[in-house]
Amino acid sequence: MKAIIGLTSSLELGREEYGIELADTEAILMAGGLPIMLPHLTDEADIDEIAEHIDGLFLAGGYDIDPTLFGEEPQPQLGVIIPARDAFELALAKKVLALKKPILGVCRGAQILNIAVGGDMYQDITTQVKGDLLQHQQRAPKFHGSHFLDVTEGSLLHRLTRQRRLKVNSRHHQANRHVPAPFIVSGVSSDGIVEAIESTQHQFALGVQWHPENMARAEDSASIGIFSGFIAACREEGEK
Hints:
This is Gamma-glutamyl-gamma-aminobutyrate hydrolase. GO terms for molecular function: gamma-glutamyl-gamma-aminobutyrate hydrolase activity. This protein is α/β, with parallel strands linked by helices. Helices cover 32% and strands 22% of the residues. The chain has 8 helices and 13 strands. The strands form 3 sheets. It has a 9-stranded mixed beta sheet with strand order 4-1-5-6-13-12-11-8-9, with helices on both faces. Strands 2-3 form a two-stranded antiparallel ribbon. The chain has a two-stranded antiparallel ribbon with strand order 7-10. Helix 2 crosses helix 3 and helix 3 crosses helix 4. The longest helix is centred in the last third of the chain and has 18 residues.
C-alpha cells in the first residue's frame, strides 16, 4: 500500500477552483507516495477526519499569509492572502502535529508550520531585514539552484540530504523569524535568512523555504532525498 499524502491546494482570487502544482504531485509519486488534493474545509470534525486518515501532510507553496494570525498588522509589501486557506492549513497542521504524523512544508508551507507552533515571520524580508540580502526571488528557471545555505550537522535535513551545504532555488519575499521549541533552525542562508526548520520531538516535521519539488525534477540528489525520507516516514505511519 502506498502512503496517503494530503496535499494542500491553492485558490485563485475571483476563481472558484482549487489548484495544485504538477511538480508537487510528481515529487510525491516519484518517492512512492499517493497525493490526495485537499480542499479548504472549515468544519472541525471534517479536518479531524482528514488528519486521522492521511499518513502524512504536504504543505505546498503559494500566496502570502495573513499577518494577523501572528499578531501583526499588514505592511504595504504584503501580497495576496487567502484567509480560507490560512485557516484550514493552520488547523490541519496543528492536528497532524498532535498526532505526530509526518509533515513536509515548502516555502509558504514552512511558514504555516512555524506559525502553527506559535512562531512568527517576516512579512517582507526586503524591508524588514537589515543588511544586504541575497536574491530570494530568483530570475532563473524554477529548477535552478540560485544560492547556498548551511545545514546544521546531525539535523534531519542533514540526514536526508547528506550535505552540510546546499544549493537551493528561491522564490519568496517572506521568511520565518522567531522559531519556537520544539522546532529548531536547521538551515540558514549566508545573509541570515532562516531556510529550514524542523521539530526535535517529531519523527518527521520539516519546513524548507525553497522548492525541492522543482529541483527533484532536475534529479537533484538532495531534493530527492528530502522527498524519499518524507514518504518513507509516511509509509511507516501507515503501517502502524
